Amino acid sequence: MSHSTLYLRFMPIGGAAAGRRKNLEFEPLSTTALILEDRPANLPAKSEEETQRHKMEYEEMVAGAKRRELKDAQKKKRQMKERHRQEDSISHAMVVWNKEILPNWDAMKGTRRVRELWWQGLPPSVRGRVWSLAIGNELNITPELYEIFLSRAKEKWRSYSETSSVNDSESDGGASLADRESSLDLIKLDISRTFPSLFIFQKGGPYHDLLHSVLGAYTCYRPDIGYVQGMSFIAAVLILNLEEAEAFITFANLLNKPCQMAFFRVDHELMLKYFAAFEVFFEENLPRLFSHFQINNLTPDLYLIDWIFTLYSKSLPLDVACRVWDVFCRDGEESLFRTGLGILRLYEDVLLQMDFIHIAQFLTRLPEDLQSHTLFTAMANTHIISRNRRWNQVFSVLMKDGIKETDKNTSPATRS
Amino acid sequence: MQTNHHKERLYKILVIGDLGVGKTSIIKRYVHHNFSPNYRATIGVDFALKVLNWDQETVRLQLWDIAGQERFGNMTRVYYREAMGAFIVFDVTRPASFEAVTKWKEDLDSKLTLTNGKHVATVLLANKCDQGRDVLTNNGIKMEQFCQENGFVGWYETSAKENINIDEAANCLVKHIIASEKDMLQSEVSDTITPQLEKDKGGTCSSCFRSQ
């Protein structure tokens, strides 16, 4: 049996073999997975030379496998370390927010240290709390008030569904515009199309009724505004981060901000001012792309409407959108336009190669793999300063000279 | 827009109609050949590009998928500019969305006319026909009458989900757009405009009105 030396068989490295050895994290796996068996008796014996050669080849293979696995293990170790570092920094940040910042909110919110920490992204566990504090409650809405509007909404829906079951079309046609638009139907249609991939707001999902309630209560609270598309996305993001009544209070106060009011009232003239101000900083920050857009007749309304109405929650991946909201809560409306410019900066090279329809398609459906750190780097390189004027200054100048311009009734599509 | 001599044509087409009738789904089916029940609501306007081979020419259709909420009207109507054709969509399971069709059509015609003063070719789509037939669309003769009275060049029962009649409807629209483009060129060439009222009113292109 002296000739029956090495007969190698490789076991699959992943799967069961690796699973059993989970605890031996940094020990190369393939050598231990090699099973040495005797050469089968029905095969002729190898020559001494061949045996020697096979032995060397085997040793080389083992050494190679060891090197590879060591490298993989090191990489894994680095990744784990990075993950631990991130987790540590999140849990550290969480402690800082909970123990230091939140108890002293008014004194600390404006400090440089807090603002920097804020820019890094809020820990998910304090996110809702910080958002609601930052947005505030100028409207003095109480949870009790929310309950009142909610019960009104429920009553309205009940009577709506009663009449519409008798005569669907006529009851619909007879109602005023606002009534029709605040109807159960409209909100229902949109709820099922709010973050559909999460499967939590759709009918039967855990947050379906909640989203319905918040939106319905709002239409009773502000019948003059009613339900406007885009609201369902904003309410949904708040519901993901806050308790029901708190979500409503924050929702109503958020929509009451000047920029949001302009958009949700669909005040076209005022919206055009926002677009014009955006263009001032667009030209300042990205002159090449700006003129490329102008040549292609691609006006900012074509993409900003979607971005602003949903505060980026529809077009950006949800985790990235939440970080954009963090900054929005810190810096207000100007940050929304800064985010827009950050997106344009991030994709400037790609966009410069595209024509009208491809740019429009690209911007209304941003890449799903967009990463928050790359966007935030692009945003950090974007400065909302034009000839020493800040956002508010540029905007108020536009509001002043606007009166004459608006008489001409310039539309965004014809404006160049 | 481009003239006949070009080997490539580019047309802007509007897709309008009430909220949730399936405008985005129809476009996704037409352009990307797929369907998902989980499309997100359109805010403002979305875009798609469809490239067709048409009589040895390339036809590019720039599809403007416009948000359906009435409230956005002031804002989105500027997007009608320079369109050469339109789909108006309603949901056969929601009668109110059909009632809105005349409103959308009137709105379109009042905001948009071709250089020869005519209205753009518009095809009516009765979508979600897989979810049971509506009493109204069951009556083909009545629907044809409705189309003639309201100036639609044709109507189709469509289903983005089951891929029913989407290509047919688009082909019908493209054919009428090309015809109206020729018409525009002719009326530009000669000062004397031959009365085309008959042809216009009839609008019955046998391929568009499917036999019932």
UniProtKB/TrEMBL annotation, chain A:
Gene Ontology molecular function: GTPase activator activity; small GTPase binding
Organism: Echeneis naucrates (Live sharksucker)
Pfam family, one: RabGAP-TBC
GO cellular component: cytoplasmic vesicle; vacuole
Designated name of the protein: TBC1 domain family member 12-like
Keywords: Coiled coil
PROSITE patterns registered for this protein in UniProt: TBC_RABGAP
Coiled-coil region: 63-90
The Rab-GAP TBC domain, residue ranges: 121-332
GO biological process: vesicle-mediated transport
Keyword Coiled coil: yes
UniProtKB/TrEMBL annotation, chain B:
Pfam families assigned to the protein according to its UniProt record, in alphabetical order: Ras
GO biological process, one term: phagosome-lysosome fusion
Main localization of the protein described in the UniProt heading: membrane
Keyword Magnesium attached: no
Membrane-topology annotation of the record: Lipid-anchor
Keyword Transcription on entry: no
Gene3D superfamilies: P-loop containing nucleotide triphosphate hydrolases (3.40.50.300)
InterPro entries, per database record: P-loop_NTPase, Rab29/Rab38/Rab32, Small_GTP-bd, Small_GTPase
Keywords assigned: GTP-binding, Lipoprotein, Membrane, Nucleotide-binding, Prenylation
Compartmental location: Endomembrane system; Membrane
GO molecular function: GTP binding; GTPase activity
GO CC terms, sorted: late endosome; lysosome; membrane; phagocytic vesicle; trans-Golgi network
Family membership: Belongs to the small GTPase superfamily. Rab family.
General function of this protein: The small GTPases Rab are key regulators in vesicle trafficking.
Protein name: Ras-related protein Rab
Species per Swiss-Prot/TrEMBL record: Echeneis naucrates (Live sharksucker)
Lineage: Eukaryota, Metazoa, Chordata, Craniata, Vertebrata
